[in-house]
Every structure is written in C-alpha cells, then in structure tokens.
Design brief:
Mean pLDDT: 81
Number of strands: 34
Shape: globular
Largest sheet: 4 strands, antiparallel
Oligomer: single chain
Helix content: 10-25%
Radius of gyration: 29 Å
Strand order of the largest sheet: 3-2-1-34
Structural class: alpha+beta
Number of helices: 6
C-alpha cells in the first residue's frame, strides 16, 4: 500500500512567526504614520485655524523687522514674528540706536526652542518654537546677554552677560535657564569682579560651556588675565587659571570638542601719547590715557607709563605678540600660543566639529590662518595661511571679517569667507588644495557705512548647498550655492538681520528610525514568504490584513499632506505635526538657592 500525500498544507512555524512579526510591526506603525497623538485635545487643535505653520529645516533672520524663517534656498518665506512682538517700542526706546532690536547671540537646542539674547532692559531672552517660528515668550536673565551656550546633557541654556543690575535679587555675570522649562527660576550669583556690586561694574567676555566638559565651564573677562573655572552644578567659581605670560585680559574664546582645548585671545597694554609710543594718539578728543605696565612693545618692562589696554592695542606690531593661548582642559596647561602670519594675534573661531580653528585679525584680511586641532594634550599646528585677495584699501590695519561658515557636502569641505570691502565672498575648497573661488552677489557700489561690511554674517543652511550672507548698508540678504559657486537668490525688503540655520534634529532622528524600521519590516516579510514556499491561504490572508493596515497609514499620510497643501494656499489653515518625541528631562520648578561666588582675590 502506497500512502497518498496529504492535501493539507503544512506551515513553517518560523516563517509564520516572521510574517506575524512583520505584520504586527506594520499594524502598530502605520496608523500613527506621523506620530500624531490621538487625544480629544489634539484632534480639536488639529482642526483649528492658526497663523503658525511647520517651518522644518530653515534659515531664520533676526532683526529690526522681526524674526523670519525661510526655506534654505530662500524661495519660500515660512513664518514671520512682527517687530511689535519681539522688540521694544521704538518711540519710547532711549538707548543707542544701534542697540534697538539687536539680537546679540542666538542658539538652538535642536529639539524644541530657539533662544535669542537682546539688549532689552526687561526679559532680555526671547524664546521661539523651533517647529513654527512662533514666539513662545520673553524671560528674565542677567543684564546685557552677549553669549549663549546650550548644554545638551544638562538640557540648559547658559547666558554670559556684560552688564550688571545691582537691584536684582541675584546679580550675576552668568545666568542659566532650563531648556525644557524657560520660566523656571535657577539662581546664580557668579560675579567676576569683587567690586561689581558696589560699582555696578561691567564684565565683557565669553563663555565656554559644552557637554563634553561635563559640569565644568569657563569664562573670560577682558580686564582679567586668567580663565574663571566654573562648577555648573553648584554655580560657583572653582578657581582662576593663570595663562602665562601674564597679560592684561582674555577675551574671545573658541572650544574644540575634538581635543578638548580652549583657544583664548590675549589682550595687551601699550604706550600712547607721543611719537615714540606704540600708538601716537591715546584716543579721540586728545584722551589722556592712563598708567599701564606693558610686557610687550616699546614700553615693555616699564611701570606706570601713559598708555591704554585691551582691543585698542590689538594688531599693533611688536605689542600684540602673545596672540592666542591654547589651553588643555584635561591637564590644565597651556600647550601653545598662536599668531597670524604677520606675527600679530587674531580672534579664534572654531569649526562646528572642532577640527579647525580660524584666526582673523587686524591685518585687512591679508591672511587668514587656519589651525588644525592636534591630539589631546598636544599643540595644534598651522594648516594653511589663506590669501583671499580681497581689496584692502583703507582697511590695511583693520579687521575685514568676523564670521565664516564651514560647509560639508559629500567628501568636500568648504570654508566660506565674506569680504568686508566689497560685495563678494571667497569659497575655499579644502579638498582641492585650498583653491579659492570668488562669488559676487550684487553689482551695487560698496558703501563704507557703519557698522561696515566687516560685520557681515555668514551662515550655512545645514544639510544643503546653500550659504546665506547679508550687507551692512543694503536691506538685502543673499543666498549662495557653494557647490556651483554662484548666487542663487536675493532676499530684499528685510532690514539687515542676524542669520541662523535651524533644524529640529529630534525629528530628523525619528524619521531615520522610522525608515530603518520599515526597511526591517520589508525584509521580514520577504523572508517569511520565501521560507513558506510561496503564497498560501494563510499568508494571503495575513498580507490582506497588513495591506489594510498600510492603507490606513497611507490615508493618514494623504490627509496630512492634503492639509499641508491647504496651508500653503490659505495661511489661516494650520497643520501642526506632533511627533512622538520624548521631551528631555525637565528641572524642578522653584528657586535653586546657591551661595554667592564673588571672586574675592581679584581687584
């Protein structure tokens, strides 16, 4: 007797399990295609009209005409917060005209908010929603915020201030806000000068705060010859670090996360008031100068000679010879000093990844030194002295640029430098033996007006081929295609603004994770069908269920896409995308009292 084969189909349990797993993932994933939380409140808000819209990867302009968000190529305006919401009333403003609606520094936390520091007397920190560009509110901080740093691990925004409000409950030169809850009060009492409370002393300088430094930060003061080492947890000054040789003060500071070194600009003293002095004139209107004790220049080693100190001595041959200290935060030692090719100091600026430090000084832009960061503890070395061949007439001993942009596209690295004496930028291709390409962005005559072209901003629209720059006198902003080396767009009718590239990196990461999950689901489906020996009634039924789940997801996507299109046609309609991004750990509400940290031993 020969047994006949059964007509029943035997299912491979492994392949069935894979198919069920794949379909389960689809069923879980597809209906929430964009992570929209299906609550009654969300559904109500989702259907309401709103002036806001999703701005995505964008370039923001901060200026006297308010705050704008544009597409990276400048072809689309995506949001606008008017002047009336972000600036003081122009008629009642009593400060210098150049300070009206001036944004000193701007930083994004990359997930929720964009933070801007202003000269406004009350609530000088303005916070904007990163997804819509809308103003969230204005918040109290120390007076005259000039330098903002976001600490990604602590989820805090640190604010370096130049002014001091002696009537404040917690006068300080360094303040901090919770990035998750801007309204939470966190008290700090960090004063860099012992006489600050009695004389309301200002403190001009910069901060170095980065998550790779943990709970340690550093501050500079332009009249103090040392770094202030700060404990970010206790809000205290831990110590002062002398950088030898002992100079008058320290100012600009750039941090390299690549080797954990800080590059700090040294400020010197020089003699003035006679033909034999370092500087013949002591200032405008026959200013008399004051007693100084220089360590460089014609008055080196003398005590209480007539002169002055600080930025006025920068760029002077024979005086500005210390340049930039390179300080290793791990060993607490200075490992090198750096100057420009002319032998004078320059202001240090770091690339985003810290691999390069750019020095720019008062040499009319004759050379720009690019330093390549060394290994931790080892001196960094000069990579190249760039000569961009910009016009220098009338600016031979002045700075012609204070900003630049590094651009990464594929295997290419570009450095974009603006000219302060003409309407052009220089694009340096690091991958092509530092070849230079110039791009003119307007045919109009260059006007030498305050604050001069040397204050042009340059900003890379991260992840794109575009770099933005502005003009000092014209109400224009220019979009340059770095890869093609040509002008791509001109934005007119908006007052000269500070330019910032903004992206919600939490959304970028979430989108990438979703794409990876969908790819894994497709692999599981293919493997399950292949191992099952083709299609069976069970696999067909399972695929039908999965197809239904996918249709639901696609329907969700279509509805959102349709509503987004309606937004573009009617600005009153609003679709706010709410993804399932977990908010960072917030701070406890209430005051965090700390003891005063006035530096007693510094006069």
């Amino acid at each position: 007797h020969i047994s006949q084969p059964s007509s029943r189909t035997f299912h491979n349990p492994v392949s069935t399990m894979k198919l069920q797993l794949a379909l389960g993932a689809i069923g879980f994933f597809a209906p929430s295609a964009l992570g929209i939380s299906q609550t009654l409140n969300d559904q109500f808000a989702f259907s309401q009209s709103s002036p806001d819209s999703f701005v995505g990867n964008s370039v923001w302009l901060f200026g006297k005409d308010g705050v704008y968000a544009f597409s990276p190529d400048g072809s689309e305006q995506r949001s606008h917060v008017p002047t009336s919401q972000v600036c003081e009333d122009a008629d009642s403003f009593t400060g210098p005209s150049y300070r009206y609606c001036r944004f000193n520094d701007i930083v994004s936390d990359g997930k929720k908010y964009v933070w801007a520091g202003t000269y406004r007397d009350n609530s000088p920190i303005s916070v904007f929603d990163i997804d819509t560009g809308s103003l969230v509110g204005t918040f109290e901080a120390c007076k005259g915020p000039t330098d903002l740093e976001y600490h990604a691990v602590r989820d805090e925004v640190w604010v370096r201030c130049s002014g001091l409000d002696v009537n404040a409950t917690d006068p300080t030169h360094l303040d901090v806000l919770s990035a998750s809850n801007p309204g939470a009060q966190i008290q700090t009492d960090i004063l860099l000068k012992s006489r600050a409370l009695d004389e309301s002393l200002t403190s001009s300088g910069y901060s170095v705060i980065h998550h790779s430094l943990g709970d340690i930060g550093y501050l500079t003061d332009n009249s103090k010859p040392h770094l202030f080492k700060i404990d970010l947890s206790s809000k205290n000054i831990l110590s002062t670090v002398d950088l030898l040789p002992k100079v008058h003060g320290l100012y600009e500071a750039a941090y390299s996360p690549f080797n954990h070194h800080i590059f700090v600009r040294a400020l010197m003293c020089c003699t003035c008031g006679s033909p034999d002095a370092d500087v013949e004139s002591c200032g405008r209107n026959d200013a008399p100068g004051y007693p100084v004790s220089p360590i460089t220049g014609k008055g080196a080693g003398q005590t209480d000679v007539t002169g002055f100190c600080g930025r006025s001595c920068s760029g002077k041959a024979g005086v500005d010879t210390v340049g930039v200290f390179e300080y290793d935060t791990k060993t607490g030692k200075v490992v090198a000093t750096h100057v420009l090719a002319e032998g004078i100091g320059g202001d240090p600026y770091a690339s985003p990844d810290g691999k390069y430090i750019v020095l720019m000084g008062k040499n009319g832009g004759n050379t720009i030194r690019v330093i390549e960061a060394g290994k931790p503890g080892a001196p960094s070395t000069t990579l190249v002295d760039l000569r961009l061949e910009f016009s220098r007439e009338g600016y031979e001993k002045m700075s012609v640029a204070r900003d630049f942009a590094f651009v990464e596209r594929g295997d290419k690295t570009y450095l974009v430098m603006p000219s302060g004496t003409s309407h052009k930028v220089g694009i340096v291709d690091f991958s092509d033996n530092f070849s230079v390409k110039h791009v003119d962005f307007t045919d109009q005559e260059f006007e030498n007006g305050a604050p001069h072209g040397r204050y042009r901003g340059v900003e890379w629209a991260v992840g794109t081929d575009y770099v933005w720059t502005n003009d000092s006198d014209l109400d224009e902003h220019y979009v340059i295609d770095v890869v093609k080396g040509e002008l791509a767009n001109t934005i007119t009718g908006i007052a000269r603004s500070t330019i910032v590239s903004v992206q919600n990196w939490d959304r970028v990461r979430e989108a990438s994770q979703r794409e990876e999950m969908m790819a894994q689901v497709q692999v599981l489906q293919s493997e399950a069908i292949e191992e099952a020996g083709g299609f069976s009634s069970m696999s067909v039924a399972a695929l039908l269920v999965g197809a239904c789940a996918l249709l639901v997801g696609l329907a969700n996507l279509y509805v959102l896409y349709d509503m987004q299109n309606k937004n573009k046609q009617n600005a009153a309609q609003h679709t706010k995308f709410v993804t399932a991004v977990q908010t960072g750990v917030g701070h406890v509400d209430g005051d965090a009292s700390v003891t005063s940290s006035i530096q007693k031993d510094v006069l």
